[in-house]
Amino acid sequence: MKTVYVVSDLHMFCRRSQWEKHLDAIHEAATVADMFIFNGDTVDFKWSCFSTVSQTVLHAVRFFRELATKYPRCNFHVNLGNHDHVQPFIFALDALAREVDNFSWHPYYLRINNTIFLHGDVANRKMSHHQLERYRRRWDAYRNRRQGQIKNRVYDAAFRAGAHVAISKLAFPHRRTVKRVVAYLEDIGHASTHGVEQVYFGHTHVPISGYQYGGVVFHNGGAPMEGIGFQLLKAVV
Ligand SMILES: [Mn+2]
Question: What is the Å distance from ligand 1's center to 112 Cα?
């Protein structure tokens, strides 16, 4: 039995994220965890406050290196999401994984025994793995281009009005969301028929705690943003 902590959607370096408020909790969890999983959109390349991709990569890698070095008994895993599936970041993660023993990364998911961890952008619509690859490529090439200050201010204003909370809830009702995740898991051969009983995901910014569907239990820790619930989730695998 291993103790796993999982956190999703930190959206590091996006000024609308309160990720820094949760650093103490992350460090605390890392002292007791066997594994720590960052479940996608850990770094936000689209809304980064740094002016270049390489600066964002540098700060992100420094964060992971310091954490993994400080807690050598904990294995750190980074699953990618749509906001951090970016080629320069992947090169840097590869290098870090070679440098640091207790660090690894995965483009789409990590399965351990009866539990699977994935970002959850497959819940946007019904997607096969092939379609998810195409979707991520479009983010890498176009949608993750850093947005300018004016657009950032417009988003800040909409954010203060709570638009993000309403939109997430409308777009991702529990049942529709988990149905799409199940369809994807069937496509990749990690559904309940393949022994999966627990699914940890993020992306939707809608917390889910122990929702059952199709013989599987779903967990979503939300996002560290105003008006949205957020927590580190603990799993035993
Ligand atoms: Mn996402």
Answer: 22
Contact 38, 3 (CB under 8 A): no
- Judging by beta carbons within 10 Å of its beta carbon (0-12, 13-18, 19+), is residue 150 exposed, middle or buried? exposed
Ligand 1 centroid to Cα of residue 40, in Å, is 7
- Span from the CA of 83 to the centroid of ligand 1 (angstroms): 6
Q: What's the 72 CA to ligand 1 centre distance in angstroms?
A: 28
% of the chain surpassing 70 pLDDT: 100
> Of the candidates 185, 49, 54, which has an alpha carbon nearest to the alpha carbon of residue 108?
185
Report how far residue 108's alpha carbon sits from residue 192's, in angstroms, rounded to the nearest whole number: 18
Question: How close is the Cα of 30 to the center of ligand 1, in Å?
Answer: 23
Q: Are 153 and 49 in contact (CB under 8 A)?
A: no
Regarding pTM above 0.90, the answer is yes
Question: For the residues 192-196, what does the mean pLDDT come to?
Answer: 97
28 alpha carbon to ligand 1 midpoint, in Å? 25
Give the separation between CA 182 and CA 132, rounded to whole angstroms: 14
Which CATH number, 2.60.120.200, 3.30.70.270, 3.60.21.10, 3.90.226.10, labels domain 3-236?
3.60.21.10
CA of 121 to the centre of ligand 1 (A): 5
Read off the pLDDT of residues 100-132 as tens digits, 9 standing for 90 and up. Answer: 999 999 999 999 999 999 999 999 999 999 999
Closest residue by Cα to residue 106 from 40, 28, 186, 198: 40
